[in-house]
Design goal:
70% of the residues lie in helices and 10% in strands. The strands form three sheets. A two-stranded antiparallel ribbon has the order 1-2. It has a two-stranded antiparallel ribbon with strand order 3-4. Strands 5-6 form a two-stranded antiparallel ribbon. It is mostly helical and 198 residues long. The longest helix is centred in the middle third of the chain and has 110 residues.
């Protein structure tokens, strides 16, 4: 049987002219050539009758271009991913650096506060020691003053007790029992009486 396909007046498939098989028996390359001719006509181009070798070459070229396009797009995507990754890492590093600086500043502030509190405690402790030393000094001075006053009072009492009136001259004089390095003479009164003969 005779089977022909004409597209826009161009014979693109013919068993008689081109020895093309029936479409139901045609190879994939022949069917691809037929589809391509119809597509070219629909796009306003003059359709051509491709051989299987031409179809294969066109498909291989298209596949190569598609692969090149895919590789180029993949390269662009990879570069974009790298750029985003680098930008993210840079942002994270900057954030980590800022966090580290903030923690360092906080730590320095805490150390400064601790140092100030330590200095304050040391100053308070020093003031307490000075107050305690001053208190002890005043207590010692008070004790010495009281001891001196007690000594003077005792001497006054002794002087008052040993005032006598002279028998021969009628003069008033005082005999005081002195205190030796061994302490007060307990027999002072007796010694004075013996001296005076009373």
């Amino acid at each position: 049987p005779r089977f022909e396909i004409t597209v826009d007046g161009v014979l693109v498939h013919s068993k008689k002219e081109h020895k093309h098989p029936l479409p139901s028996r045609a190879s994939q390359l022949r069917m691809e050539a037929l589809r391509h001719a119809i597509s070219e006509a629909l796009d306003g181009h003059v359709p051509i009758v491709e051989t299987e070798e031409q179809v294969k070459k066109r498909l291989d070229t298209a596949a190569e271009k598609a692969e090149e396009t895919r590789l180029a797009e993949e390269k662009v995507r990879n570069e974009e991913l790298k750029r985003r990754k680098a930008a993210k890492q840079k942002a994270e590093a900057k954030k980590a650096q800022s966090k580290l600086e903030a923690e360092r500043a906080k730590l320095e502030e805490e150390n400064a506060q601790l140092a100030a509190e330590q200095a304050k405690l040391e100053a308070e402790e020093l003031a307490k020691q000075r107050d305690l030393e001053e208190k002890r000094r005043l207590e010692e001075e008070t004790r010495l003053a009281e001891a001196e006053n007690a000594k003077l009072h005792l001497l006054e009492q002794e002087e008052a007790r040993h005032k006598i009136k002279g028998a021969s001259t009628g003069r008033l004089f005082t005999l005081t029992c002195c205190q030796s390095s061994m302490g007060k003479d307990d027999d002072g009164d007796f010694a004075i009486q013996r001296i005076l003969g009373s």
